[in-house]
Specification:
By secondary structure, the protein is an alpha/beta fold. It has 2 domains: about 1-105, Tetrapyrrole methylase, N-terminal domain (Cobalt-precorrin-4 Transmethylase, domain 1); about 110-230, 2-Layer Sandwich (Methyltransferase, Cobalt-precorrin-4 Transmethylase, Domain 2), CATH 3.30.950. About 30% of the residues lie in helices and about 20% in strands. It contains 8 helices and 10 strands. The strands form 2 sheets. It has a 5-stranded parallel β-sheet with strand order 3-2-4-1-5, with helices on both faces. A hairpin with a 7-residue loop joins strand 8 and strand 9. The termini are far apart.
């Protein structure tokens, strides 16, 4: 018996990995994040599979379900939205499983920041514009280490993908304007890859107003940085005058 942490992806069932879909279609027991995982993903479970929505469960209750499954020698699919390694709270679950001597594995998934970039049709890393992506969030009930507060992260002027913070969009715009400038490109993508996806493009000067007008209050990603503007910069990788290990430059 084992627990398999599975990335459900951003919502579109076709963005599940082949392995994730196989595991879901054959699962006998699944614990899923009902507040985040799309219903179309959960619907892939067999009709007779035991289903537990973790939205209302404590860690102890989740562990109790796993222990009961172990008594029946049934594998448990632990379904997390996006990729489990990003804001997935899987570390504490793994620690408890290790205490109990229960085996587990992780199946990665497509993250919402990747699906948001696809929706915006942008490259998050642009030559000479931004070669660094920062995945972060704002402080809330879960505080940030002081040296990772948004004010300090902003000094990198990297492409920022800000999770779990849409309710603080005004604060985000205000804080980042100091380093990026009011005209810095910004975007908000809600429910990336799903049928009800909403994409908002703007600048730090107007992104908060546009977001509030749209009615978006949760399950959205904020992306800030010059890469959002789709700058016309060409990579040297495919430059005919650039030599690398697989191609000689044209003379």
């Amino acid at each position: 018996m084992k627990v398999i942490f599975v990335g459900a992806g951003p919502g579109d069932p076709e963005l599940l990995t082949v392995k994730a879909e196989r595991l879901l279609r054959s699962a006998r027991c699944c614990i899923y994040a009902g507040s985040l995982v799309a219903e179309t993903i959960v619907d892939l479970l067999p009709a007779d599979a035991a289903r537990y929505d973790s939205a209302s469960l404590s860690l102890d209750q989740i562990v109790d379900i796993v222990k009961a499954a172990r008594e029946r020698d049934v594998d448990v699919v632990r379904l997390h939205s996006g990729d489990p390694s990003i804001y997935g709270a899987i570390g504490e679950q793994m620690a408890r499983l290790e205490e109990l001597g229960i085996d587990y594995e992780v199946v990665p998934g497509v993250s919402s920041f990747q699906a948001a970039a696809a929706a915006l049709k942008i490259e998050l890393t642009v030559p000479e514009i931004s070669q660094t992506i920062v995945l972060t969030r704002t402080s809330g009930r879960t505080p940030l280490p002081e040296h990772q507060e948004l004010e300090r992260i902003a000094r990198t002027r990297a492409t920022l993908c800000i999770f779990l913070s849409i309710h603080k969009i005004e604060e985000i715009a205000r804080v980042l304007t100091g380093e990026y400038g009011a005209d810095a490109p910004a975007a908000v993508v809600s429910h990336a890859s799903r049928p009800d996806q909403i994409v908002i493009r703007g600048t730090l000067a107007d992104i908060a107003r546009q977001t509030r007008a749209s009615g978006i209050t949760k399950t959205a990603l904020v992306i800030v940085g010059n890469a959002v503007a789709r700058a016309d910069r060409v990579s040297r990788l495919y430059d005919k005058g650039f030599t690398h290990g697989y191609r000689e430059a044209e003379r």
